[in-house]
Amino acid sequence: MAHAPKAISATTEAAREAAARLTLEDKAVLTTGASWWTTAAFPHAGIPEIRLSDGPHGLRLQNDERADHLGINGSAPATCFPPAVTLASSWDAELAERVGRALGRECLAHGVHVLLGPGVNIKRSPLCGRNFEYFSEDPFLSGVLGAAWVKGLQAQGVGASLKHFAANNQENGRMSVSSDIDPRTLHEIYLSAFRRVVTEAGPWTVMCAYNRLNGVHSSENRRLLTELLRDAWGYEGVVVSDWGAVVDRARSLAAGLDLEMPSSSGLGPARLVEAVNSGEIEEGMLDVSAARVAELALKVTAHADPDADYDREAHHALAHEAATRGAVLLKNDNELLPLDPGADTRIAVLGEFARTPRYQGAGSSKVTPTQLDDALTALALAAPSARIDFAAGFPVDDPQGDVAALREEAVRTARAADVVLLFLGLPPSYESEGYDREHLELPSEQTELLAAVTEANPNTVVILANGGVVRLAGWIDRVPAVLEGWLLGQAGGTATADLLFGSANPSGRLAETIPLRLADTPAFADWPGERGHARYGEGVFVGYRHYDTRELDVSYPFGHGLSYTTFEYTDLRVTRSDTGLDVTVAITNTGPRAGHEVVQVYTRAIGSQVRRPVRELRAFAAVPLAPAETRDVTLSIARADLAHFDIGAGSWLVEGLDHGVDVGASSRDIRLTATVTIDGDVHDDALDADSTVGAWRAHPVGGPAIERLLERMRKTMGAAYPQEGSPRYRMIADMRLSQLAKLPIVPLDFDDVEALLAEVRHESPGASRTELPRRS
């Protein structure tokens, strides 16, 4: 449905007037980058230059002489916040918004007008090398957190760049691979987070992806960039290319891409001028894009502040908070954690990652931190009474390292300790923008070290550092406790010490499922594709939708995470309104420590006419509670979020059904359940005489109408009429109505069919448009 146009703002009118002062050649230049990170300025028209910069978990500001988008060259120091993989595990939109605000302040201080983020692409496979930059396998969680991040950033007057639009879910072949996706899967899974961020947060730019979508380059996909983004979702900002994503500048402009980045050494502008002069595209198209770019330039530079600064210590503290909230305690047998910080204990800290932290991913998001906390130093400060012995244990990305000697030293250190803190994870070379992983395993030298260390000292805690899921099966039974640290940003070392010694209570929850093995993952059979095509054969069954619906065993389910306290769920109440559902539940902290419980609400469409996952996330909240405190938590589910994308109608449809409402602590830890009846949308599928009996029965108007005829058949045929649900009954449901009317044993004729057609068309029986044969 197209959105009504908004009133033209003063900035919009000024931008149009400014663009009108430009020549054809000027407009072509304005809509193509002037350098790697800047756009062109036209002082005579009042259009300033703007600077864009990589993100999204920190500002990666480069000068143009050393510019790149692959993380090769350095950048100015900035706060390295935890990447999206960690921030998502907080399940806290308010925290995401505060991180966005802090990023905005740093952009203002460095003269950056647009920060390239957030990335809301879905984690279709845990192998994607860029998963650390994305929030979740779930589009609702990704969309809510992405919208909050954008609101925080843009509240500072800095533009966001929502990316990568769309279906950029792998790095292998990303410049040309076609993501081949059916319409329902595309809308429900891969466009949903983008739609939420666009409609709720209004990002000032949207970045189109490198890949093709169903055979069409994203940069040239009018269906994507104009019909969906602008016409259906009401987007009014600038569509910018990913760096180098434009294939043909004229075709991309016609599709709705406003700004090509970076500079194309004059090729892009020349192609636009030639296309306009030849009549291939209308100059009016270029006028529209030039005005949009001019409006963006006027909007962001109006907020520029040459005196802007930020509190580096405060931002480091926020990075610490986000790291603490995003780490997930997966396992804690016999309450081994937290350790006593005041005890006279001998602790073995093993693993190079404790001394040399792995705190962010590689590629265009690589940030130069303002400072960097390592866990080894932080642990010593947190437990001054303890004796801490360190051994590297394994080399990191060093094939020449003496693995055997490092392992032997670590085993000796472990044997002499009361407890072992073993830091494992993925080396930087394992995951990055530009390529995908080939497996889910930790490096063999690490798993071999773990086996040797746990044999020497079973009192071992594993602390993981990884941007994508690693396989735990095969080694996790050897250890009593595991803390999934993901990538914790520049303050991760101190956050880790706080969590291990209990000055902070773990509250992170998994934003993605940890499978038992790679072969269990949804896209396994279709990854990474072949001959330039990635077929999304798993459909809507991505992430927990796949594992839970198929009842597959997993290491840990979506939403899982432990705490040093316990929580009780009681008194579930579900109220219905025209706008959706309000779900209220009482949460009590029944344990000894203050902590956050992440309340998760899922729904089930009972008896749906389409195949749907067994449950889908619809609402969540991270709730802080003191010991013995009870709080009523009310979470709202919008009616639109209960819909599925109906292929026949080409639109969203809420079915009239009973919907199960499941409230719990993970997708598999459901504490309370209720059922509520939802009235369906009026939906006129195009029924005709050749529609099946089943299709007629599923139709909101045709269903009741055909039931009257079927009742007549029951009475006339008596015992010969097949029982509901029987194989013969299902055979009738698959028959075309016109086919059924031809059978001599069936008491229907084409007059009956015409009457049915008239009823669904809101016509009188005599006004049928269909000429049908009469039974002789």
What do you see in this structure?
This protein is of the alpha/beta class. Helix content is 31%, strand content 19%. It has 23 helices and 26 strands. Strands 9-14-13-12-10-11 form a 6-stranded mixed β-sheet, sandwiched between helices. A 5-stranded parallel β-sheet has the order 1-2-3-5-8. The chain has a 4-stranded mixed β-sheet with strand order 7-6-4-16, with no helix packed on it. A hairpin with a 2-residue loop joins strand 18 (567-577) and strand 19 (580-589). Helix 2 (24-30) packs across helix 11 and helix 14 runs parallel beside helix 17. The longest helix is centred in the middle third of the chain and has 19 residues, at 283-301. It is globular. Mean pLDDT is 92; it is low at 763-776.
Concise summary:
This protein is α/β, with parallel strands linked by helices and 776 residues long. The protein is built from 23 helices and 26 strands.
